Amino acid sequence: MTDDDFMAGIVAGSLEVRLARSPVDVDAVQALRYRVFYEEMAADPSGEMAARERDFDRFDAYCDHLMVIDHDRSAGDKVVGTYRLLRRSVADAHGGFYSSWEYDIDTIVAHPGEILELGRSCVDSAYRNGTTMTLLWRGNAAYVLHYDVPIMFGCASFPGTDPQEHAEPLSYLYHNYLAPPALRPRARDEHYVSMDLIPKEELDRRAALRAVPPLIKGYLRLNGFVGDGGVIDRQWGSVDVSIVVKTDLVTQRYRDKLT
């Protein structure tokens, strides 16, 4: 587990953000992910996941796990928000990045310096508000400042497995937020689903933006981009898009709150 003294003092009332420090912390993160992804949403758990009521995979053992903790809740139920964080220096020692099975990320990997994959983001239904999300992003900002990370990337999802149901927002993202070629991931050929489903001039921009999921809107507000192509993930019951964010605006926005 990572020493997280650089996150000391990131609090709001009874809420605190920090990294997981023990297997008990990771278990609590996995329990939250199971409740959100498998009980509330449409993901399909393996038999072992269902028996344990935990979301887990091989990446959990060496990723950092960002947690929002509510100290007013009971001991076994304190984790109310999470992000999974995987740096290049760690991924290189453990077989690569999670999102590489969906996307060709060679353009990102070619970028000099540290890079950071964000994943498994979720928040307890009772805590989906600005305070919790601000704490998560203050934690992310502290992390990228500490490790000098210029590029973050990962996947974000639309619910359901029919891209046509999301034709407007997918097309809106494609026409307005496609990453520059030097940073553009592309869905692997075996998974590739076009996002260019409606011509730009035929889009209702306001309606399309309203249909973009809140997490993706958050990335766009941080000057985020999307990759080329969506991916249907049937286990998770979603249509995924690749996200790329330069961290300069993230650290600028949250730096004053970290000092």
Q: Which descriptors would you attach to this protein?
A:
259 residues; alpha+beta; Aminopeptidase; 10-stranded mixed sheet; two-stranded antiparallel ribbon; 9 helices; 12 strands; 32% helix; globular
Query: If you compute it from the alpha carbons, what radius of gyration comes out, rounded to the nearest whole angstrom?
Result: 18 Å
**Overall pLDDT, averaged?**
93
Strand content: 15-25%
CATH homolog superfamily = Gcn5-related N-acetyltransferase (GNAT)
Provide the CATH topology: Aminopeptidase
Helix content: 25-40%
Count of DSSP strands: 12
Low-confidence runs of at least 5 consecutive residues: none
Overall CATH class? Alpha Beta
Distance between the termini: 24 Å
Q: Could you say how many structural domains there are in total?
A: 1
